[in-house]
Write a structure and sequence with these properties.
The chain is mostly beta strands and 173 residues long. The protein has a 5-stranded antiparallel β-sheet, with no helix packed on it. Keywords: Repeat, WD repeat.
């Protein structure tokens, strides 16, 4: 088992069940995610979703890391980032059978999104039925202006590294 914690610094920490820090991650998408406020995984612990104070959702693929966390080659891949709300995300849920993500915000709205692409399906309370099979319509909620961004595989994660820089005066510089 792996425990995940989300932090105000946008950092995600993965812990062993014994309490040892296994991995520390920062998002690298072009949109600043801000302080993380919500976390959830699918039932097989292959996908990790994070929600932020600024309303962003980030999808991480953690399958290979969970299978063998000791192997350094097994990386965690940030796959998708999208703005789901104009305000803080307070809860997330992945519905795997329908491939849907439900997001809730402090603005009182609950919205549905396609889990793999971040396409917007609608909000709870709308007059029309949800059409979950049509992901070709590029619509957004009225308060969100950014489309989802698929993260390229070549992108490198920013991992926090402990570096000590002693303060010294260098007169030549």
């Amino acid at each position: 088992p792996i425990l995940a914690s989300a932090h105000e610094s946008s950092c995600i920490r993965l812990w062993s069940i014994q309490g040892n820090l296994m991995k520390e991650l920062l998002p690298f998408s072009e949109h600043p995610s801000g302080p993380l406020t919500a976390l959830c995984t699918d039932s097989f612990t292959k996908i990790l979703l994070t929600g932020s104070k600024e309303g962003y959702i980030i999808r991480w693929n953690i399958a290979s890391f969970v299978e063998d966390s000791r192997n350094r080659k097994n990386k965690i891949q940030e796959e998708l980032c999208w703005r789901a709300h104009a305000t803080e995300v307070v809860d997330l849920l992945i519905e795997e059978e329908k491939n849907v993500v439900a997001t809730a915000s402090i603005d009182g709205s609950v919205r549905l999104w396609h889990a793999r692409t971040g396409y917007y399906f609608g909000y709870f309370g709308q007059s029309r039925k949800f059409e979950l099979s049509d992901t070709s319509r590029l619509i957004l909620p009225s308060d969100v202006k950014d489309f989802s961004a698929i993260i390229k595989e070549e992108s490198q994660h920013m991992e926090k590294k402990k570096v000590i820089y002693p303060l010294r005066l260098d007169r030549d510089k």
